[in-house]
Design goal:
Length: 195
């Protein structure tokens, strides 16, 4: 016991001396023992700092600014305001739960809860996700065109008063204007094009 106490004291003294030497070059402080534990603690928290860096990197990763690359046919519909042939679109008869996003910019447009069977040959929805869809008078001067609010991509047309659902609205949307993400799948980041 006595030996242990002596050894302990000797070690502590040696540390103090060593720390004093270390500190002498950069500080006039005569309390180097207080500095040592702080340095050790900093080293112990290095892994936590790594986690923070990872989170920071994720938060700082810039939102994509380039629209998704489109096939010529998708471009004809989304940019050229074209219409795909009826009854051939990949989502016309889809009944799975999930979200339909803009194929060009990933903005969420419709929920599968808003989809209904109209037998008109194109995917039909009786409402859009809040603020997702812009309505303009079509170039034909009669129909109402629907466009992605975020990127202005052409979606299709909207019709009222047909009596399909309680809401009495039918968004008639080209499958190629959208991309479907099943429920539980993370949605892609929305492309915000720089003006
Ligand atoms: Zn869009």
């Amino acid at each position: 016991m006595q030996i242990f106490a002596n050894n302990h004291k000797a070690t502590a003294t040696a540390l103090l001396v060593l720390a004093g030497i270390t500190m002498a070059g950069c500080s006039n402080s005569n309390r180097p023992a207080l500095t040592e534990p702080v340095q050790v603690k900093a080293a112990e928290t290095t892994p936590a700092k790594g986690d923070t860096d990872d989170m920071t990197a994720a938060n700082e990763s810039p939102a994509p600014t380039e629209y998704n690359k489109l096939t010529p046919d998708e471009e004809r519909i989304i940019v050229g305001k074209g219409t795909e042939r009826p009854f051939v679109g990949e989502y016309t008869d889809l009944h799975d739960a999930g979200t339909f996003v803009c194929r060009r910019c990933n903005a969420p447009l419709y929920s599968s809860k808003q989809k209904f069977e109209s037998h008109c040959g194109w995917p039909s929805f009786d409402d859009e996700l809040p603020g997702a869809v812009r309505k303009d008078l079509d170039l034909d001067g009669m129909r109402t065109e629907i466009l992605c609010e975020n990127c202005g991509g052409h979606l299709g047309h909207v019709f009222a008063g047909e009596g399909f659902t309680k809401k009495n609205i039918r968004h008639c949307v080209n499958s190629k204007s959208m991309k479907f993400y099943p429920e539980g799948t993370p949605l892609p980041p929305v492309v915000k094009k720089a003006e």
